[in-house]
Structure formats: C-alpha cells, structure tokens
Design a protein that fits this description.
With 208 residues, the protein is α/β, with parallel strands linked by helices. It is built from six helices and nine strands. The strands form two sheets. Strands 3-2-1-4-5-6-7 form a seven-stranded mixed β-sheet, with helices on one face. Strands 8-9 form a two-stranded antiparallel ribbon. The protein starts with a strand and ends with a strand.
Length: 208
Amino acid sequence: MLKILVCVSGGGTNLQAIIDGIKAGSITNTEIIGVISNNYGVKSLERAEKAGIPAEVISPKDFADRAQFNKAFLDKVKEMNPDLVVLAGFLVRIPEEFVKEYSNRIVNIHPSLIPSFCGVGYYGLKVHEKALERGVKITGATVHFVNEGMDEGPIIAQKPVAVEDGDTPEMLQKRVMEQAEWVILPKAIDDIANGRIEVVNNKVIRKA
Ligand code: GAR
C-alpha cells in the first residue's frame, strides 16, 4: 500500500480527484495518510476533513523566516513518513533539502505542457494568462517528479487540451483541470502505486 501525503494551497480540486479515484477504485494500493496546506481557511482543508483525512496547516506566516518554515515543513513530512508526496496545487517553493531526501518520491501537477509556460512565476491562473497572451492553440497539463530545478524533473504524464476562441484564463483553467489534471494525476499515482514506472537517466519509463 502506497502511503501518500498531499500538499495543497487552495481549492483542492486535484486533492478531490485523488480522494474520488481511491474511492472509485481507479487508484489502487494507495492510502492518503495526510494533507498539509500552507494556507489557513482554504477549501482543500474542508475536502480533507469531509474525507476523514488528517490535515494540518503549516503557514510561512507562523515562522520568523523561510528557513524556519522549511524546517517545520520537512519535520512534519518526516513525522508522517509517506512513501510519496503529491504536490496538488502546492504553490510554495520546495526546500532543496526536501527534494534531496525525497528524490523521485515527490510528484507535482503543473497546468501546462512542460517545458512551455513553467518555471519561476508560472503557477495557477498565471499559467493560463500567459498561454492566452501568447496565443497558443494547444495547452494541457503535466505530472512530473520534482527535482532541484523548477518544473524540470522527469515527466510522468502529459495531456493536451485545446484553447478555444474567446477563452478567459478562468475558462481555460477549468478545461485544463477537467480534461487533463484530474485525469493524469490520479493515473500517475496509480502507476506509481502499482510499480508500473521507473526513472532511468532522468526520464520516466514504463516497465515492461
Ligand atoms: C492546479 O491548476 C495546479 O495544476 C496548479 O494549481 C492549481 C491548483 O488547483 N499548480 C501549479 O500551478 C503548480 N506550479 P486545485 O487546488 O484546485 O487542485
């Protein structure tokens, strides 16, 4: 059984997709052992509570500086001792020590086809604003393992989504979530939980 910790910052629709996937049996061999939010009062926390999952807030606002927040965050993760950490809309720069200790055991969902519209400053709605500004006709989502670079780790799965005339960032965000994120993130977790993928030379390959 793969024990996963889900880290969130806001609405938690990806968290919900994981909860629902486990319930429906499309994600197997997986248990959510906890949720960490960096923000108080967000919908993600309600979703966790409703599903009976222990949830905690670790907010940078409660610490004197970033280093102390990073330490508290890492200490909490270690205490929970997950097999896999899922960044499901966790809009926080991930501490380097954390990435080192959990190499190939942290996955992130990003709302574009990496390497487009990713890296510093590309998160949440901003990603879709930039895609519309550039006028791309196809965008999508990517699930990847997290390494020291920003959105640079081995890619597990991607799914394209069409941009439509008249899209607003909100409309595009909704379509990318519905058609891509909520599909590929649960599937990636199921693949990891069932030992179907591995990382070789910084790339994800499917086991025979
Ligand atoms: C999602 O679109 C996710 O891909 C994005 O934040 C949103 C969170 O929504 N993540 C990033 O931009 C990471 N760089 P949710 O809280 O409803 O799952």
